[in-house]
Design brief:
It is a single chain. The mean pLDDT is 88. This protein is of the alpha/beta class. Helices cover 46% and strands 16% of the residues. The protein has one domain: ATPase, V1 complex, subunit F (Rossmann fold, 3-Layer(aba) Sandwich), CATH 3.40.50.10580. The longest helix is centred in the middle third of the chain and has 11 residues.
Length: 98
Amino acid sequence: MGAPTFLGDELTSAGFRLAGMRVVDAVPDRLEADFLEAVAVAPLVIITASVAGRLPAQLLDRALRRARPPVAIVPEVVGETPMPDLEREVRIALGVES
C-alpha cells in the first residue's frame, strides 16, 4: 500500500507535502490517470475542489461511494473553485428541502 496522496495545485500541495503526503500536481493531460492510480494504491486520497470539477462525474462519484480508499475534497488555498454546499445537499437528501 502506498502513502496517502494529494492531487491539486502547486500552492495547496506545499502544505500537504510538508505533512508527509505524496503529492501529485494536477496536470490536465494526466489528471484522470493520476486519480485512478492514487485510488488504486493510496490508503487516503485528497483532491482539491477544482480537481474534483475536472474529473468525470461518474468516476468521482464511484470513488466517493466506494469509500476505499477514502477520497476527500478540500478547497484550494487561493479558492478558485467554491466548495459544494454540503448542508443543502444533506437537506435535499433527507427531503427537507427541494
